[in-house]
Design a protein that fits this description.
single chain; about 180 residues; mainly alpha; Hypothetical protein af1432; about 70% helix; about 0% strand; globular
Amino acid sequence: MIEAVRTWVRERSLQAPHLEQTLAWTLELEPAASEEVQIAALSHDMERAFPEGSPKWEAARGWKDPLYDIAHTERSARIVGDFLRDQGLPEHRVREVVRLILAHETGGWHDADVVQAADSLSFLETMARPVARWVSEGRASAEQARARIDHAVQRIHHPKAREMADAMLPQAMRDFEEELAGGGA
């Protein structure tokens, strides 16, 4: 099932590198992660691949709004759940993936904290430059964008991941500043 989800993510999502790296970080933090945890990590942001019917919030500014998080996680969970049902995954397993996607912004128990932390670690690696483009596109101020990168660290509950994120933050900020200055790749 992981490979079916990976293929779907690659075919549909512009954020596939972030989603695939979230899976990699999940396995780094929890090598014995269940398939449900792995699927949730790999697909947690899939609503962004389906802009039709998407919430009208601007992701560049909405990340601080708990209502945005609810809309984002519920829509992602619904889209992924439907995909998994279409693939024939048993309903009890679909429900576990959905439960983890619903909690990927907040965590709350061990597996959810792993997915949340892996999401943040991947965000630091893969999203600092795209976040800098929010500024050049007029979607956010530089201060708002920097705060979003910092938030990726501050929200982590998983102790090992928090230490890793603290160490990764300076590079993410350098990538952000380089992109902001127009020197991005």
